[in-house]
Design brief:
It is globular and about 35 Å long. The N and C termini lie far apart (48 Å). It contains 2 helices and 4 strands. The chain is of the alpha+beta class. The protein has a 4-stranded antiparallel β-sheet, with helices on one face. It has one domain: Alpha-Beta Plaits. Helix content is 26%, strand content 43%.
Length: 112
Amino acid sequence: MNLYEHTIIARQDTSPTQLKQIQEKYAKLLEKFDGSIVKAENWGLLNLSYLIKKNRKGNYIHFKIKADGKAISELEKNEKIDKNLLRYLTVRVKKFDLQTVYFGKKEETKEQ
């Protein structure tokens, strides 16, 4: 089993329930091909660097996946035809960083 980090950018007008359905849809697809999602993060609505299909913002969803290459190719094949998605990116990694939260709310600490 290989380790992958996979990020999806959904359209800006996608509702939170639709985002949840997208996340569940691809989780089931990976399970069908003997893959598993180790961690799923919803990064929220972020600005895009440039317009993509007339969208200025996108909803980012990030997965940490343990799967074979065949499962990833099936995942990308299904994402290619999904009208709710703007972009996707899969990167193979050697190990996961499960502690760092990149787009979470930062807690304010009082230093005296």
